[in-house]
Structures are given as structure tokens and as C-alpha cells.
């Protein structure tokens, strides 16, 4: 592979040398360079109301500004074509956030985590068939709360608890947080 590259470079040098001699390119390049040098010299020493060195400096500033704007445009186009997941390092979820299901009070519970990393959207499921449970309030007397969890698919009464549903869900959330702490320590 390396010898092919070297042979290609030698071939290009030989072809360029032959073309330069045959077509007399060097005299054209030399004449263009001398002509440009004479024009710049004549421009710099000519008289005008504005000093030519100031015009030249302004021209350099404009060229510099165009170069900077071009570089910014190329960088922004390149960034726009790059997918965001390639631009930033992928941040993985903490391991404890994969803890999304467990059994409490003989009932299967599933949940998500909220912005403050607390369990939210607690939903109860049948431990036998994994169907979502219906929660019944069995009492009509205030202060005497009894709730029952019933599975429609299995036709089973899963559990009766002598507490309000809000209390049970809060207790489950506390048990989830305790399990996370005990597994992390």
C-alpha cells in the first residue's frame, strides 16, 4: 500500500514538472505575482483623502470577519447535522430507578418516579394474574375506613385493609423509599 502512494506522488511530480515546462506556467505565475505586487505598491503610495494604509487595514478586518463568520456557519451546520445524542455524552439512569415494581400488603404495586425522585402513580395489580385491581370502599361510616382490593379477571378478593386508600398508597411509597435506601447502603 505504501509503495503505491509513493509511486503516485512521484508520478504527480513528474507530470506537474512536464506541464510546467511544456506550457510555460511558471512565467505566467511569475508575471501575475509581479503585476499584483506592482498594483499593491502603487495603491499604497498613491494620494487620496483617506490614507491607504487605513483602507488596507479595513480590508484586513473585513477579511478576518468574513473568515470568522464562515467558520461559525460551518460549525453550526455541522452541529445541526449531528444528532443530539451524539453531541452529548449519554447519561444513564441510576440503578435504583429501574426498581418499578414490588409486592406490599400481598398486592403487586407498580409506579414511576417524579421530578423529586419520589414514587408516583402507584397502581395495584393482582399477584396471581397481573390484572389491575379495583379498589372498593366498604364502609359508609366516617372515620371507619375499610378498603378491599378485587380482581375482575380472577374474581378474587385479594385483600381488605382497615385504612383509607390515600394512607395505603402513602405507606407503599414510604416502603419503596425504605427499600431503595436499604439496597443502596
How much helix, percentage-wise, in residues? 40-55%
Helices and strands, in order, run as: HHHHEEEEEEH
Largest sheet geometry: 3 strands, antiparallel
Helical run tally: 5
Number of domains: 2
Per DSSP, what share of the residues sits in E-state strands of 2 or more residues?
A: 15-25%
Task: Look at the structure and give the mean pLDDT.
Answer: 85
**Which residues sit in consecutive blocks of at least 5 with pLDDT less than 50?**
none
Distance between the termini: 58 Å
Q: How many DSSP-defined strands?
A: 6
Shape: elongated
Strands of the widest sheet, in order across it, are: 1-2-3
Q: Rg from C-alpha positions?
A: 40 Å
Structural class: alpha+beta
Structural summary, described in words:
By secondary structure, this protein is of the alpha+beta class. The chain folds into two domains: 2-87, no CATH class; 95-184, no CATH class. Helices cover 52% and strands 18% of the residues. It has helices spanning 2-23, 25-45, 52-81, 84-87, 165-184; strands at 101-104, 107-113, 119-125, 134-137, 147-151, 156-161. The strands form two sheets. It has a three-stranded antiparallel β-sheet, with helices on one face. The chain has a three-stranded antiparallel β-sheet with strand order 4-5-6, with no helix packed on it. The longest helix has 30 residues, at 52-81. The radius of gyration is 40 Å and the shape is elongated. The model has no long low-confidence stretch (mean pLDDT 85).
Amino acid at each position: 500500500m505504501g509503495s503505491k502512494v509513493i509511486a503516485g506522488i512521484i508520478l504527480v511530480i513528474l507530470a506537474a514538472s512536464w506541464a510546467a515546462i511544456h506550457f510555460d506556467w511558471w512565467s505566467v505565475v511569475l508575471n501575475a505575482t509581479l503585476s499584483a505586487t506592482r498594483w499593491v505598491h502603487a495603491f499604497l503610495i498613491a494620494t487620496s483623502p483617506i490614507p491607504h494604509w487605513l483602507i488596507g487595514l479595513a480590508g484586513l478586518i473585513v477579511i478576518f470577519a468574513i473568515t470568522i463568520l464562515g467558520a461559525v456557519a460551518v460549525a453550526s451546520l455541522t452541529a445541526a447535522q449531528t444528532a443530539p445524542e451524539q453531541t452529548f455524552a449519554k447519561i444513564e439512569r441510576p440503578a435504583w430507578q429501574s426498581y418499578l415494581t414490588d409486592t406490599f400488603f400481598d398486592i403487586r404495586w407498580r409506579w414511576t418516579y417524579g421530578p423529586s425522585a419520589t414514587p408516583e402513580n402507584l397502581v395495584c395489580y393482582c399477584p396471581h394474574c397481573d390484572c389491575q385491581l379495583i379498589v372498593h370502599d366498604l364502609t359508609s361510616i366516617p372515620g371507619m375506613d375499610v378498603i378491599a382490593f378485587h380482581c375482575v379477571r380472577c374474581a378474587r378478593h385479594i385483600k381488605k385493609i382497615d385504612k383509607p386508600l390515600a394512607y395505603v398508597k402513602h405507606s407503599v411509597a414510604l416502603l419503596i423509599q425504605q427499600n431503595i435506601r436499604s439496597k443502596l447502603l
